[in-house]
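Homework help board

Subject: predicted structure for assignment chain

Our instructor gave us this sequence and asked us to write out the predicted structure in token form, then describe one feature. I got the tokens but I'm not sure how to describe them. Can anyone check?
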Amino acid sequence: VQLVESGGDWVQPGKSLRLSCTGSGNIYEIHDMGWHRQAPGKVRELVGTISRYGNTDYAELVKGRFTISRDNAKNTMFLQMTDLKPEDTAVYYCNGDVGARTGYAINWSDVWGQGTQVTVSS
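My token output:
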């Protein structure tokens, strides 16, 4: 079972970008998921979270600019980023509370992706 981020790119300030986080493997369900980011020389910070039922919560720095959504049927979460600023430059990571089928059992664990780079500069 793994989560893989995609969609990172270089963009100019003010532009938009959409990241995806897709689960693969023998997944039963994914409950709460989140996006995090880590800029060079800084600690990793929470960007926002989404429940399985679509309830979202965002860090103050991104409220009104970033939107998290998900497609449970595809085990995929999205991060729509608008009005990007140079300070949004970071590696973006996703994580999820993933239930994996193991024989007749479901084992739950916090799974993290490997990250995708977002660079915002002119």
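Reply (TA_rk): Your tokens look well-formed. For the description, you could write something like this. The CA atoms of residues 50 and 111 lie 15 Å apart. That's the kind of observation they're looking for.
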